[in-house]
Amino acid sequence: MNVLNLSLNLFLVVFVFISISAPKALSWSKEGHVLTCRIAQSLLEPGPAEVVHNLLPDYVDGDLSALCTWPDQIRHWYKYRWTSNLHFIDTPDNACTFDYSRDCHDPKGLKDMCVAGAIRNFTSQLMHYRDGTSDRRYNLTESLLFLSHFMGDIHQPLHVGFTSDEGGNTIQLRWFRHKSNLHHVWDREIILTALTDYYNKNMDALQEDIHSNFTGGIRSEDISSWGDCDDLFSCPNKYAAESINLACKWGYKGVKQGETLSDDYFNSRVPIVT
């Protein structure tokens, strides 16, 4: 399953769970997050879709993707500065494995402060939707926005990367003719190059291609496997492990500080992303 598509799975599982529990009511770049949220929302069953619609502010007219980048926009605001460490996981260099008890903490060692811990936390908060709109223990709209964003982040391989290079952020290189870094290549460069080369910069066309793979194409059988976890809260561990594996196999492999990445790297990695 490719990375953008994989990032939809727990998002759907969570809202399937909400639809069962609720009483009858039911780091990617901007482009990556928008695509993830658009497709995830389009695949929701009616009950979970209503939950999402009810939690969104009126001004977005039911469009979750309009706010999927909000957690990136506010992460350095004083009020939300505590969320900065929730967008990623630093793992031991070259271990190519994820262990929640070992890896899910912030630089000061505070436990659960990583993207997998954030998904667990905001999933737990959204479970309180079944308590009704009178429940004020959590801001469930914020919980929804954080969850949908972090589901994108945990499936971007370099958001689960090596500690010493900060998930590829300190690996400086060139992407074709301009300066970049390895993390940014996976966050945005590959997507933008694909949009330019294959879709005439039309994101709707890329979205249609990905969506068609689920509704009747080569990935139509994948949806049934998305909930294959021991329990709902073990799913983030599974996805973090998959991401660091992809980071080792496809992200870091063969990349050196200061080199130029171009056609060979792009052509072999774009199927992983899209």
Number of contiguous helices: 12
Using the alpha-carbon principal axes, give the shape: globular
Sheet with the most strands?
A: 3 strands, mixed
The H/E string reads HHHHHEHHHEEEHHHEH
The tally of strands reads 5
Q: Which assembly state applies to the chains in this document?
A: single chain
- Rg is 18 Å
Q: Runs with pLDDT <50, length 5+? A: 22-26
Provide the residue-averaged pLDDT.
86
Instruction: Please indicate the percent range of residues in DSSP E strands (runs of 2 or more).
Output: 5-15%
The structure class reads mainly alpha
Strand order of the largest sheet: 4-3-5
Helix share bin: 40-55%
End-to-end separation in angstroms reads: 9 Å
Keywords: Disulfide bond, Endonuclease, Glycoprotein, Hydrolase, Metal-binding, Nuclease, Signal
Protein name: Aspergillus nuclease S1
Signal peptide: 1-27
InterPro entries: PLipase_C/P1_nuclease_dom_sf, S1/P1nuclease
Question: Can you put this structure into words, describing what you see?
Answer:
- This protein has 274 residues and is mainly α.
- Helix content is 49%, strand content 6%.
- The chain has twelve helices and five strands.
- The strands form two sheets. A three-stranded mixed β-sheet has the order 4-3-5.
- A hairpin with a 2-residue loop joins strand 3 and strand 4 (178-181).
- Helix 3 crosses helix 8 (140-153).
- The longest helix is centred in the last third of the chain and has 18 residues, at 182-199.
